[in-house]
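Researcher: Re-running this chain for the archive, since the previous output was lost when a drive failed. Same request as before.
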Amino acid sequence: MKDRLINFIKRFKFQVFLGSVIAISLILVNVSMNLYYSTNAYQLDLSRPEYVKVRSQIEKDPKDEDSFGEQGPVNQETLDDFLNRFQAEERKATDSKAFQNDVLGDEQLGIENSNNQ
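Model: Regenerated structure tokens:
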């Protein structure tokens, strides 16, 4: 029996390889989908059809936008402004606890209003 299996694998190397790759990929997709749903990560995906109402409520506030214009002078004042903003964001990132239970909580993500639907 063992010799027949080895001969079969040697004879059909490519087909066995292809079948193995497909089987492994199906197993990994199954594991990842189970994790996706068991950890409730699917609730964070705003592209889902159930969240159409929430997407329409998202408002972009220009005063909250921390970006620099495409045109403008690059001088010491601009560089200082950039460094101050960068260091503030860096402090937020380094102060967060990566292995906390609520690492993706509203407070950690900087979300003030948490009305989901």
